[in-house]
Amino acid sequence: MQTIRGFRDILPERISLWQKVETEATKLFKAFGFKEIRIPVLEKTGLFARSIGEATDIVEKEMYTFADRKGDKLTLRPEATASIARSYIQHKMYAKDPVRKFFMIGPMFRRERPQKGRYRQFYQIDAEVFGVESAYIDCQLILLLNELFKRLGLKGLFAHINSLGCPSCRPSFQKELLDFIESKKDRLCENCIRRIDKNPLRILDCKVKDCRKALKDAPSTLDLLCKDCDDHFNTVKKTLEKQGIDFIVDKSLVRGLDYYTRTAWEIQTTSLGAQSAVAGGGRYDGLVKELGGPQTPGIGFAIGFDRLVEVMEQINKAPEDPPLELFIVSLGDAAMEKGYHWSCELNQAGIRTEIDFRRKSMKALMKRANKLNARYVLIAGDNELNENAILLRNMDTKKQSSLAMETLVPELIKIFKK
Ligand code: ATP
Ligand code: MG
């Protein structure tokens, strides 16, 4: 049996970088006032169709959607924002305190063509803020991402930012864009043509080379922002500059989801080939209302955890597991029983102890102790039990001492807790 295409195991040998990222991210989120939320992996399809948008890559072709036994249409979550917004509304969180900051870490599912940095089950580290319209929160999220990447030792990452405007300035932009697209129609791919009526903004996001060329001089949302959106974006830029965060304004950045308004950004790297986006984020001031809640601004980002780890693997070796502290060599039934109880008590006291329950020779067990890189070995055979003198060998210095059985566990705890 094999994993499904695009799905993979993350084996214990590779897990330490994942854990390091989780620890650092959680620490940072807490310092910035974010609370962890856990949302289901499965939701009603309508939630994603309505929030992400019908004419988007995700909803049109990437979702894992199926009918359950009763015929309800369900989808494996392709991203977290929609579910977290659903939760915010379902539990009426806005009533008690509209300002909420959440984070979550977990798997997402998209049926894309698998390649390096692109999987069908992948992981995201996600942050969402509800109830804050101020541009300072946009900056704080970008700063937070920057700080996390700095703590993880990453360099060469760049923030691309853009503003997508709001419902009051988008129509005039849309009109200009449509006029422009009409003039380039013969050079666009089928997908783009189809989207002219459904979702013209998405055309700017097309990855097809010829489309990109044709759209090089497309109008920019930035030229048509209303006064409020313009002020908002200026505050973002000014503040990021003040905070020393490197960014470039990228008018081609529109992001692949419908719900974005105003600030959108992506953190890109040059070290992963075509899969250049390590994180993406943006403001979605209309989403909560669209999903049936009260008008509430929102903003968030998602880090591609798999890609982040791949960038880290290029620069640091995975931290090694701490060495085994004690290996118990038990020879014979009586010693095995004693050894079993000692190992449990030591494990319970937090000391990394192993015992081998297979009946093996002294030589074979010492070999295993070496392989496991044990700092100490405890040797208990019939002789040692009869004389109540269990041998403890320091594997570095080769020095040996003997311990009486009654005080063996507390003595060892003393040694290892030093
Ligand atoms: P891309 O343009 O690479 O497809 P996206 O715009 O679809 O990315 P988002 O929806 O913004 O991605 O998700 C945020 C982040 O999640 C991305 O920046 C990326 O790092 C990661 N990501 C998205 N899809 C995948 C995938 N299939 N496999 C691994 N990581 C992914
Ligand atoms: Mg994508």
Task: Describe the fold and architecture.
The chain is of the alpha+beta class and 418 residues long. The chain is 40% helix and 21% strand. It has an eight-stranded mixed β-sheet, sandwiched between helices. Strands 13-12-14-15-16 form a five-stranded mixed β-sheet, sandwiched between helices. The protein has a three-stranded antiparallel β-sheet with strand order 2-4-3. A hairpin with a 5-residue loop joins strand 3 and strand 4. The relative contact order is 0.12. Bound molecules: adenosine-5'-triphosphate and magnesium ion (MG). Adenosine-5'-triphosphate binds next to strand 6, strand 10, strand 11 and helix 13. Magnesium ion (MG) binds next to loops.
Q: Level of helix content?
A: 40-55%
- Radius of gyration over C-alpha positions, nearest whole angstrom: 28 Å
Describe the largest sheet. 8 strands, mixed
Categorize the overall geometry: elongated
Distance between the termini: 47 Å
Bound molecules: adenosine-5'-triphosphate, magnesium ion
Strand order of the largest sheet: 1-5-6-11-10-9-7-8
Name the average pLDDT: 94
SSE layout and pairing:
Elements: H1 15-31, E1 35-36, E2 42-44, H2 45-52, H3 57-62, E3 65-67, E4 73-76, H4 81-90, H5 93-96, E5 100-109, E6 121-130, H6 135-151, E7 157-163, H7 170-184, H8 190-198, H9 200-203, H10 209-214, H11 227-242, E8 247-249, E9 261-269, E10 277-283, H12 287-290, E11 298-304, H13 305-315, E12 326-330, H14 333-348, E13 353-355, H15 362-371, E14 376-380, H16 382-386, E15 390-394, E16 400-403, H17 408-417
Parallel strand pairs: 1-5, 7-8, 12-13, 12-14
Antiparallel strand pairs: 2-4, 3-4, 5-6, 6-11, 7-9, 9-10, 10-11, 14-15, 15-16
Helix pairs in contact: 1-6, 6-11
The protein binds adenosine-5'-triphosphate and magnesium ion.
